[in-house]
Design a protein that fits this description.
single chain; mainly alpha; 2 domains; 23 helices
Length: 539
């Protein structure tokens, strides 16, 4: 028998796809664009400083890609086979667990790995400008490669144990945090409680971010042992996770009978999600009486508490920041903390709402349930109203509380502002107004993308990119062009009012254009969009 037959087959199939070539080409062009943007943004700096800023910017973006893309690629690759009942067919042959795991790993990771390879030549450009050594360059390449494979192994391990797609995505993020963030957080807490003792850097060796930090020439020569220990530990954890996934995939694909009594993890998770068993019927009747689709989208009783939990974490960060500053409300640095807190509230709520607004519709479309839903007396307005009620139940109160907090931050910032207060008021009020417009546009755009993309994650990413990311990218380009104009013309750069106009105008244009387009198409073509995935499968 050929060694690793699935790996060989999947590599051949994936390498021959046209999308593989275009994906890596697009990523290389994006990396070139990011490098060009950073170069133009720092054109008046010394060449060595420009090189380091380009290198560090690409390094940060690539690390985020490695930590996210790896888990995203493998999070549902085995669990989807379990749901479809096809995983057991593979074990009717003489395939072993590692054949299946490594085959799926090759099939799902080749595009991401090619994208990472496409970025590496762009990393070499700062070497020509100086400020970056050959050793630093190769250490960063090594750390990014090891981190990407480590992220793949985390997703593969969780997918081998899971059956539900959402649980797989949430669980692999939890496993990643347990390995990457928890040991370092414990070390930081120990140092905070006992600052006389040195910081326990050994607890950071499982964190790829710390390994990337040690790639810098000055840090590497101070702690070379920690760098290689961290690389070796990440490599070891990767093989442990892949080995555990190879064992688990042979023992977790069968449908197991549910236990009538006793405790189990699934029962505990259901309790966390749906509440106590004796109260579920009453909650179900309450939602069904309001709207049947409302019950479908809001079955998870404790979802609003999850949002409140995130807001409490942001509030805890604000309290800690104020404690570190030492003087509440009077120190000018408080305004910066308040502004950062407002940004965190804005980004967290918008991203979460974009994810939730698309999730239920995308799952129903992916599972082919709309054929059944649309054959019932439910009409389009009932489905949209049920989705609106579910989002209102989960996000309305947190959004209102966040708006009140932001208004309080604005009043404090205006009272202690050394700059033009009218411009500061316009900035804060414009941010609040833009947040409301973004929420409305995300509501319509996310539901439209849920019916036009393949997976719930793609729907969320597509809507967020159009409403949130695209205007920010264009605004960054305008800011760079303004700086270039001032540099070459020898004149002062545009004032704050210029940037405020472009920021608000670009966001408003994106909200109006995409929001109205999505609303019009959703209301006029809902049945066609909802059933086109089913029609393709039948065809």
């Amino acid at each position: 028998m050929t060694f690793l037959p699935i790996v060989a087959r999947e590599l051949r199939v994936t390498a021959r796809r046209r999308g593989t070539f275009w994906t890596r080409t697009l990523v290389a062009l994006i990396a070139i664009g990011v490098g060009t943007f950073l170069y133009l943004a720092n054109i008046d700096a010394a060449p060595q400083d420009v090189a380091r800023r380009i290198f560090f910017g690409l390094m940060a973006v690539s690390m985020f890609f490695c930590l996210y893309a790896g888990r995203y690629s493998t999070a549902d690759c085995l669990s989807v086979e379990k749901r479809q009942g096809t995983l057991g067919l593979l074990f009717l042959t003489d395939l072993r667990g590692y054949d299946v795991v490594l085959g799926k790993l090759a099939a799902t990771s080749l595009n991401g790995f090619y994208c990472l390879l496409a970025v590496f030549p762009v990393f070499a450009v700062p070497l020509l400008l100086g400020g970056i050594t050959n050793g630093q360059f190769w250490r960063v390449i090594l750390v990014l490669t090891v981190t990407f494979v480590f992220s793949l192994s985390v997703g593969m391990f969780v997918s081998a144990l899971s059956r539900d797609a959402r649980k797989a995505m949430g669980s692999n993020l939890l496993v990643l945090l347990l390995i990457v963030a928890i040991p370092g957080s414990c070390g930081a807490l120990m140092f905070y409680l006992n600052p006389t003792h040195p910081f326990p850097f050994v607890l950071l060796v499982s964190c790829p971010l710390y390994t990337l930090y040690l790639c810098d020439e000055s840090q590497y020569f101070l702690q070379p042992v920690f760098f290689w220990q961290s690389v070796a530990l990440l490599h070891l954890i990767t093989w442990i996770l892949l080995g555990a996934a190879s064992w688990a995939v042979r023992h977790s694909w069968q449908d197991k009978p549910s236990r009538a009594r006793g405790w189990s993890w699934s029962r505990f998770l259901d309790w966390l999600r749906f509440g106590p068993v004796n109260k579920r019927a009453q909650y179900r009747r309450q939602l069904l009486d309001a709207n049947p689709f409302y019950w479908l989208a809001a079955r998870s009783k404790f979802k609003p508490y999850h949002v409140w939990g995130v807001l409490l974490c942001i509030a805890a960060w604000w309290v800690w920041a104020q404690f570190q500053i030492g003087v509440l409300w009077l120190d000018p640095r408080v305004s910066g903390t308040n502004f950062a807190t407002a940004i965190m509230l804005n980004v967290a709520l918008k991203l979460w709402l974009g994810l939730e607004a698309s999730r239920q519709l995308a799952e129903e479309r992916q599972g082919g349930s709309f054929e059944l839903l649309l054959s019932t007396p439910l009409e389009l307005r009932d489905i949209l109203n049920g989705q609106r009620l579910a989002l209102k139940r989960q996000f309305l109160a947190p959004i209102l509380v966040s708006a009140v907090l932001v208004l309080g931050f604005m009043v404090q910032a205006v009272d202690h502002a050394p700059m033009d207060r009218s411009l500061l008021v316009e900035l804060w009020l414009g941010g609040l107004l833009m947040f409301g417009l973004d929420v409305i546009a995300l509501y319509w755009m996310a539901m439209y993308c849920a019916l036009t993309t393949q997976t719930p994650n793609q729907a969320a990413v597509s809507s967020i990119v159009r409403i949130v990311v695209a205007p920010a990218v264009v605004f960054a380009a305008v800011a760079v062009l303004g700086k270039l104009y001032a540099f070459f013309a020898g004149r002062p750069g545009p004032g704050p009012g210029f940037y405020l106009f472009w920021w608000f105008g670009l966001g408003l244009a994106a909200d109006v254009a995409y929001g109205f387009m999505a609303r019009r198409r959703l209301l006029s073509r809902f049945r066609q969009l909802a059933c086109q995935g089913v029609a393709r499968k039948a065809g």
